[in-house]
Amino acid sequence: MLKQKLIIDTDCGSDDAMAIAMALRDPNYEILFFTAVSGNVHRDQAALNTLLTVEKAGTYEPPVYLGAADMLLRDLAYAHETHGDDGMGDLGFKPEHLKVSEGNGILKILEALRDNEPQTVDIITLGTLTNIALAMRLEPETMRRVRRIVAMGTAGLHPGNVSPVAEFNIWQDAEAAKIVTEFGIPLTYVGWDACWVNGAMLDEKEIKALHDSGPLGEFLVDCNKCLLELNRERFNGDYLDMADPAAMAAALHPQCIDICDNYYCEVDTNKGPSYGGVLVDTFRFSGKEPNAYIVSQLKPKEFKRYLFETLGAEYPE
Ligand code: BDR
Ligand code: CA
Predict the structure, then answer these.
(1) Residue 213 lies in a domain
(2) 126 CB within 6 A, ligand 1
C-alpha cells in the first residue's frame, strides 16, 4: 500500500504531542520529518517535545529539524499558562535518546518538495505559520508542489481562544498566516471550534479511559495537566479541547468531518482589537473567490474513536 507522505510542522505543546502520536501510529501515512517552530514554547523546546513524543509513540523515528525561532514581525507570546513552561505540563519529561537533526527546517521542506513528485506531499501545521510563510517567500514555485496544507488555525465560525475573534496559532503570527492564506494552494484550516463544539472535547470518562490505557495514554493525558486545570475554569468541568488532534483527525481521517466549506478568508493584521482574527466570508459579501476550506465541526464519535484507535486505547462507548 502506498502511504501518503506528510511533513508535520509543530510548536509542540501538550495537544500537539497527542496529534503527533496519532499520526505516527496511523499505518496509512509516512511522516518524512517534523519541523519545529516557536509558539506554545520556544522552537528549541518544541523540538525537544517532538523528540520526546516520537520516543513515547514507539513506532518509527522521523527526523526533527529546527525552523524559525522568531515570528515574522511580532514579539513572541508563549502559551505557558495553557501547556506549562515546558509545553508538557512541567512534569520533567525529556527525550531519552533522540536528538535534533542537522539542517534548517524551512530549507528541508523545500528540498523534500523538490525531491518528491509534485502533489505527493501534504503539510500539516499544528502551530504558527511562520515556517510555511517563509518557505513560500523563499521559493513560491517549489511550494506549489505541495498537495495540500492542513492547518490547525482560525477560530472557525465561533469565538476565539485568545481574544473574542482570534485563535492562538493565527494570532501568534498573523502576518505569516496572511501570506499562507493568500498564497493560492489547497488550504484547509481546522478551526478551534472543531475541537469543542458539538461535544468534541474529551470528557472526564474519556480522559480517564485514555489515561488508563497504558504508558502512551498516561503520558498524553498527564502532559495536558495545565490545560485540564485551565478548562475547569473555562468550561466548568474536566474537559480537554484537543485542537491539534482534531486537526490531525480531520487531515488523516476525513470521515470524521461534519461541517467543512470553502470561503474567502482574510487575516486581520491591523494592530487593533481584532488582530489575528480571520474574517470568514460566510455570506460571500466580498464576491471574491474562496481561498480556504474551514472545518468548523467534527462528528464527535468518529473523531474520538479514531483518536483512541490510533493511540492503541479502547474507546469507552
Ligand atoms: C492551538 O494553540 C496551541 O495552544 C495549541 O497547541 C493549538 O495548536 C489552539 O489554539
Ligand atoms: Ca500547537
Answers:
(1) yes
(2) yes
Could you tell me if residue 317 is inside a domain? Answer: no
For the chain, 317 residues long, give each residue's pLDDT as a single digit of tens.
899 999 999 999 999 999 999 999 999 999 999 999 999 999 999 999 999 999 999 999 999 999 999 999 999 999 998 999 999 999 999 999 999 999 999 999 999 999 999 999 999 999 999 999 999 999 999 999 999 999 999 999 999 999 999 999 999 999 999 999 999 999 999 999 999 999 999 999 999 999 999 999 999 999 999 999 999 999 999 999 999 999 999 999 999 999 999 999 999 999 999 999 999 999 999 999 999 999 999 999 999 999 999 999 999 99
| pTM for the structure as a whole | 0.98
d(CA 39, CA 144): 25
Distance 10 CA to ligand 2 centre (A): 6
DSSP per-residue letters across 259-305 = EEEEE-EEE--SSSTTTTBEEE-TT--S-PPP-EEEEEEE-HHHHHH
CATH number at residue 265: 3.90.245.10
> 115 an active-site residue?
no
On whether residue 278 sits in a domain, the answer given is: yes
Enter the DSSP assignment of 27: T
CB 268 within 8 A of CB 279: yes
In the numeric block, which cell numbers belong to residue 254?
476525513
Ligand 1 within 6 A of CB of 13: yes
Q: How many domains does the chain have?
A: 1
How many angstroms separate the alpha carbon of residue 243 from the centre of ligand 1? 6
Give me the domain span that covers residue 133.
4-310
